[in-house]
Task: structure prediction
Amino acid sequence: MSEKTKELVIIGGGPAGLAAAVAAAEAGVPVEEIRILERDNKLGGILNQCIHNGFGLHTFKEELTGPEYADRFIQKAHELKIPSSLNTMVVDISYDAASGVKKVTAMNRSEGVFTIDARAVILAMGCRERPKGALNIPGYRPAGIYTAGTAQHYVNIDGRMPGKEVVILGSGDIGLIMARRMTLEGAKVKVVAELMPYSGGLKRNIVQCLDDYGIPLKLSHTVVDIEGKERVEAVTIAQVDENRAPIPGTEERYTCDTLLLACGLLPENELSRQLGVEMSPITGGPLVDESLETNLAGVFACGNVLHVHDLVDYVSGEATIAGQNAAKFLSEKRTEKNAPDLKIVTQGGVRYSVPSTIHLDTMADTLTVRFRVGAVYKDQNLAVYLGDTKLQSLKKRVMAPGEMEQVILVKKKLEEVREAGEKSSELKICIEA
Result:
C-alpha cells in the first residue's frame, strides 16, 4: 500500500468539492498540495444529470443548466491545475489527535490501495436518496420502482425511459422536476403523492413542474399498496391522519407501470462518523462552527453532506467559505480547537442551524446562518436573541420546510451586546407571533 502526503484532501468532486478546492487554491494553498478524490468517472457530481435550467442565478447572475454550472467550476479547477483523482473510492479516514494528521485511505485501478497523510480534510461527499426499503411500503417488489434520481440518470444520461404511466411518491424538488421531465418525454404522470401536509420542494417547482402540466399534487397522502409481481401494475394511495397513518376509505387506485420515489435525501456521512465527527441528529450531517470546521481540528464540511440545500448556488458559496478557512487553518499550523463563545439554540419551529456554534474571534464581520423550519408558518416573526437581548426580528410572510431560511448575524452587534453585560453563551433563533 503506497503512502503520500498532502496539505489538503477534498473528498468529493461535485459542486461543493470543486468550489472548496478553487477557494483553497486562490487563498494560497499550493495546488500541488491539494487533491480531490472523486468516486465517479468525471467531476461535477449530480449536476451532470440535472439538464434543466435554473442554476447559477446567484453565483453567475445568469441561468444555467446543471452541466453548464458544473463546467464553470471544472474549468476553473483545470485552469488552476488542481489535481483530481477520478474513479477513486475513499474507504477509511482516521485522525491522530496528537499530530493532527488525517489518514485518508482510498483505492482506484491505477494506484491500488493508497493512503494520504493530510493536514486538512474537506468533507464534500454530497447526499443520497432515501431508498424504498426505508419507507415500509407494503406489496411485492416488482420491476418499475425507482428512486427519482435513478430515473433522472436513465432519462438524461442513458437516454432510456423507465416507464410510460407514472405515480410519484414525494414532492421534493427532484420528484417535482422528474414529473415534468417524464411528461416532456411522453409519459403520463398520474399523480404526485406527499405524506406531509406541505410540499418538500420549492414553490416555483410546484408551479412550473406540476401546475403548468396539470399534474395533481395530493398532500397528506402515501402509497399503501403496490400491485404486480413481475412489473408494477397499479399503485394505491390513501390519505393519512395527523399521525401519518392511512385513513380507511380514502384509498385511490392508479394503474401504472412505474413508481418513482422522491422521499428525501440523506447526507452521505459514513466516512464522517468513522472519523469521529460529531453529527446533528436533525440533519444527519456534521455539527460545524462559523468556519464550517467540525469538532476535529482541520476537518471541514460543506454542501449537501452538511445539510441538504435547495439551491446549488448556496452550496458553492458555503464551500468557498470552507476552502478559505481550510487555507487559513493550514497557514496557522493549528492542531487544536478552542471552545466556542456561542452556541446556537433553535426553538419554536426552527429545526436546526448551520453553523451550530460560533467563535467570535474568528467570525467574519457578518455570518449567514441557514436553517429550515418544521412546518408552514404564515405572518410570523423570525427572532434572534443573545440571552435575553433581542438582536433582530424579521416579519416573514411565509416560511415552509421546502425552502431554506437564513439570518445574518453582525459581529459588531454581538460584541456590543456582550460588552453591555450580556453574559449568556446561547444565541437563540426562534419563530414567534
Residues 131-263 form a domain with the FAD/NAD(P)-binding domain fold (CATH 3.50.50.60). The chain has three domains: 2-127+266-335, 131-263, 338-433. The chain has a mean pLDDT of 94. The first helix runs from residue 15 to 26.
